[in-house]
Write a structure and sequence with these properties.
By secondary structure, the chain is of the alpha/beta class. Helices cover 44% and strands 14% of the residues. Helix 2 runs parallel beside helix 3.
């Protein structure tokens, strides 16, 4: 199974229909055939999060490798919520406490890193659902105010669960992970996947074995009725992954976008200026 690589194809028929202000329901958006370009927040700032929410279809806050703590993430979520778009949280680990705390804050999706087995997938999904579908404890402190008084009956279907498949072990156990009903989608981390397969970590993989693995994950996820999502290293990769059949593609991170924009602006300024102090 050979994957399409970035730059091999372009398409103008990509439905990255922005999730409207009346819908935080990402699963319903996918069911309608919509796709999403996801913004990724790693900078601990409500201001930058608010800007991201004005531009992207969905926004994720990264508590695993991002620089924010829970309180800052909550403030960022409050800024994003002015747009009423789906908000995802990548939790630090597959640990019920932080998963439930993120949901109680009002996040409508959870991305869980390093899900390698069916058992781990079951544990993750159960933390996101109320009984009898799961083991989530009831205490939606902010979520109740944001999502309405019937949240206890709507939360299980509103919350989107993404298990990250990013290791050789997860690839080997992919069919079993996909068999977990309460896992709604698979999120591919290309850097860790590359590293686990024996190649340098990169959001823009160059080895065919990594691309074959990415294609296999996408095909199997879609066949199982799950959403397919991936972290991308360039705008071209986002475009190509959506055209290839992914439902959601993340454009690098806010920190990387900021650094890239600064570098481009400075390069242009220095090329135009006859002399500088640097």
């Amino acid at each position: 199974m050979t994957a399409q690589r970035p730059g091999e194809r372009t398409s103008r028929d990509i439905r990255t229909v922005a999730v409207t202000a009346s819908s935080r329901d990402l699963k319903a958006h996918f069911a309608r055939g919509g796709k999403a370009i996801n913004g990724w927040c790693s900078i601990p700032s409500a201001v930058t999060a608010e800007i991201m929410a004005q531009l992207f279809d969905t926004v994720s806050i990264d508590l695993q490798h991002g620089l924010m703590d829970y309180q800052t993430a909550l403030s960022m979520l409050q800024a994003i919520d002015r747009r009423a778009i789906p908000t995802l949280c990548r939790v630090p680990w597959n640990e019920p406490g932080i998963i439930m705390k993120a949901l109680d804050a009002g996040f409508t999706g959870i991305i869980c890193p390093m899900v390698n087995t069916r058992e781990e997938a079951e544990r993750f999904a159960a933390s996101c659902r109320y009984a009898p579908r799961g083991t989530r404890s009831f205490g939606p402190t902010r979520a109740l105010a944001v999502h309405g008084p019937d949240y206890v009956t709507t939360a299980d279907d509103l919350v989107t669960t993404f298990a990250m498949v990013e290791t050789a072990a997860a690839l080997a156990n992919l069919d079993e992970i996909l068999s977990v009903d309460e896992v709604d989608g698979i999120y591919i981390g290309p850097a860790d996947l590359s590293l686990s397969l024996g190649y340098p970590p990169s959001l823009l993989p160059t080895d065919s074995a990594v691309w074959d693995a990415i294609a296999e994950i996408r095909v199997k996820a879609k066949a199982a009725g799950k959403a397919a999502a991936i972290h991308c290293g360039s705008p071209g990769m986002v475009r190509d992954m959506l055209a290839a059949g992914f439902d959601l593609a993340t454009l690098v991170t806010d920190a990387r976008l900021f650094a890239n924009a600064l570098a481009a602006g400075l390069n242009e300024a220095r090329a135009a200026a006859p002399t500088t102090n640097r």
